Amino acid sequence: MPKLELSSQQRRDLRAAAHPLHPIVLIGDKGLTDAVLAEIDHSLTAHELIKVRIAGAERPERETMLDTICETLSCAAVHHLGKTLIIYRPDLLAQQAALDAQNRTRAVRKKSAPYVPKKQAASPNAGKPAHAGQKAATAPESASPKARRAAISQEPARKGRKPAGGRQGLAAAPHGIPRRSSGSALSLRAGARRSRNPR
């Protein structure tokens, strides 16, 4: 299997992350056996970043062991400090699962579908018409966008809802409070004072 390559920035970050770790695999006098390789593989699968301690071997032998581990298990050598090796292998399945979980919450819609805000899409009445007995007038999915817009504009105006054809007048607000057609709040207050206190 190919050896995993790391950039200097990744190596620096991983070395900092491995600083508080303790060695979890010890290579003894028998050297790098199949059982030790299986244990390193199991530890890399569980933790991704591990420290391995080598006892009773000189530096050239330790470097040979490190190269063998990296080539056999397809991992990267982060650091070799004395008799301690820092080894990293990313868990691709866990990364893919995290990415899938993140993308699962994203709303996926067709380009031709109308935009629905998140809060409205998350409400329990999403996808239902505004009134229980009344269905919204829609054109079939195969119809052109122009035909769908025409079907929506012919939909009857409902209580408390803007008509599809244009803007609603200022006098009839959906909350039932009449609005003044002109003048700001300050001018209205000044006019009210003038009418109360005639000179």
What can you see in these coordinates?
The chain is of the alpha+beta class and 199 residues long. It has a domain at 8-89: YhbY-like (Translation Initiation Factor IF3), CATH 3.30.110. 40% of the residues lie in helices and 10% in strands. The chain has helices at 8-18, 34-47, 59-73, 92-104, 118-122, 145-153, 185-196; strands at residues 25-27, 49-54, 76-81, 84-88. Strand 1 (25-27), helix 2 (34-47) and strand 2 form a beta-alpha-beta unit.
Q: How is the secondary structure organized here?
A:
Elements: H1 8-18, E1 25-27, H2 34-47, E2 49-54, H3 59-73, E3 76-81, E4 84-88, H4 92-104, H5 118-122, H6 145-153, H7 185-196
Question: How much of the sequence is in beta strands?
Answer: 5-15%
Largest β sheet strand count, sense and barrel closure: 4 strands, mixed
> Helix proportion of residues, in percent?
25-40%
What is the rounded Rg? Answer: 35 Å
Reported CATH architecture of the domain at 8-89: 2-Layer Sandwich
List the secondary-structure elements in sequence, H or E: HEHEHEEHHHH
Stretches where pLDDT is under 50 for at least 5 consecutive residues are: 164-171
